[in-house]
Every structure is written in structure tokens, then in C-alpha cells.
Input
Amino acid sequence: MDNNHNVIELHKLENPLNELLKKGAQQLLAQAIEAEVQSLLNNFISLQAKGKQGVVHNGYLPERHL
Output
């Protein structure tokens, strides 16, 4: 194997604080998105089709045909 190249291997530094911050940021974003979705659903709560809610949170209820 030819070792005459300019590629060097970089090692990722593991830092517990970075991991904690990353997980916290992910949780915060997930909560913000969930709150935004709930707000949107609340705006369309009056829309109904055949007595069922017309706008639902995708993936939370079984598929139905309107």
C-alpha cells in the first residue's frame, strides 16, 4: 500500500458537555415543533368530514378514507 499521501486521520474528541448540550437542543427543538403542530391542529379543530376531525396529526391515528 502506498503511504505517500496527504490524508491524515482526525479523532473526534468526546466531550460529555457537548453531548449534553446536543441532547438538550434536540429535545428543545422537538418540543417546539410539537407545540407548533398542536397550535396548527387547534386552528382547524372545527373542520370535520363525516363527523370526524378533518385535520389530524400524521401518524397518531389509523388511516381513514374520507
